[in-house]
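Project outcomes to date are best conveyed with an example. Our students and postdoctoral researchers have been running inverse folding experiments weekly, and each run begins with a structure described purely in tokens. The record below, which covers 214 residues, was selected by the lab manager from last quarter's runs and is presented without edits.
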């Protein structure tokens, strides 16, 4: 292969990777801004500047695109949790940091839990099992470590780590998917970084106060 042909091949690969990434990011933005996991191909095409037929080319179908978004978001979360487990920190400090990170994540990607449940519900069983194996199981195991280490050292009271995992996820997901409740019940539409920081501080305090050994 000539140098020119190799250069063209590399440029094509870069162009394809950029287009794929742009579709993922644009779809993520649409879901985040619209508080939804339903994506209009026409809106995706207009906002990305790309032909919506590329969704089928790169991802197979809409579920393939949603899986790619989940992979991008959840892979980073699983990696960060692994790094936190490896840190030489007291269990209480690790858990405080992790709960804060969960809230930050749901502020950035408020669709995350709904997207996960949508794919687990709609994909064939092998696809649902693959999502659980790659993302949910590692997080569940991380909570066993976080909570288990705290119980062993006497910092945390005895509790079920799986139920605790659900409680933390629920606290983050429920708040950031409740924007319309805040708007119509309280007349508030200020889900900005200040709101996120206030909710993070209060929620971390509430959760940690509930699990610390008396």
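After processing, the design step wrote out the following sequence:
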């Amino acid at each position: 292969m000539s140098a020119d042909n190799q250069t063209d091949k590399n440029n094509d690969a870069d162009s394809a990777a950029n287009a794929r990434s742009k579709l993922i990011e644009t779809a993520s933005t649409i879901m985040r801004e619209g508080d939804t996991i339903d994506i209009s191909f026409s809106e995706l095409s207009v906002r990305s500047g790309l032909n919506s037929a590329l969704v089928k080319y790169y991802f197979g179908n809409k579920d393939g695109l949603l899986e790619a978004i989940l992979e991008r978001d959840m892979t980073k979360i699983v990696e960060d949790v692994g790094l936190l487990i490896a840190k030489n920190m007291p269990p209480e400090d690790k858990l405080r940091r992790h709960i804060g990170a969960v809230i930050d994540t749901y502020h950035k990607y408020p669709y995350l839990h709904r997207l996960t449940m949508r794919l687990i519900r709609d994909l064939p069983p092998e696809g649902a099992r693959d999502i659980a194996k790659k993302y949910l199981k590692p997080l569940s195991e991380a909570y066993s470590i976080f909570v288990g280490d705290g119980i062993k050292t006497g910092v945390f009271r005895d509790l079920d780590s799986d139920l605790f995992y659900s409680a933390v996820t629920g606290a983050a997901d429920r708040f950031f998917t409740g924007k319309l409740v805040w708007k119509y019940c309280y007349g508030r539409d200020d889900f900005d970084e200040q709101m996120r920081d206030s909710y993070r501080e209060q929620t971390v305090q509430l959760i940690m106060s509930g699990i610390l050994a008396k």
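The first helix runs from residue 3 to 34. DSSP finds ten helices and no strands in the chain. The training component of this project remains on track.
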